[in-house]
Amino acid sequence: MVIETTRFGEIEISEESVLHMADGMLGFQSCKWFVLLEDEPGTPFKWLQAVDDPALAFIVVNPIQFFPEYEIELADDDAESIGLQDPSDAELVTTVTVEKDGERVTTNLLGPVVINSRNLQAKQVVLQDDRYGTKHVIGAKAGTDATLDAARAA
To answer: Taking the domain 2-153, which CATH number applies?
Structure first.
């Protein structure tokens, strides 16, 4: 299947790789179909590209790469809504923000996207966990920082 994107132009994706988000992303509920695209090999950053809106794409990361202790408790109704029965089938990504001045890169640990790897149903959830916030620093300018450079490039 070929999709048109603002950032990447026309790209071919496998229909079997398309994620369905019945509720969309927070603030973008009209977009229901997404695909994860690798930014550059060797970087932790990916793009969560909307299939149904060429201009909508989020930089995302697997939060475990930066916060190995990160864990979430998924509400039963959220798990049920994406058909998740086995926690080992869950994949997590969190959205990334690069500050306008490029000095900090943060990720939203409070609102992860949970993907059921078996059926590609996904949902962005809002956790009820005061350990996490929307702006956890994953890169800050301190000389040369590979994470910060990679995020800026994304």
So the answer is: 2.30.290.10
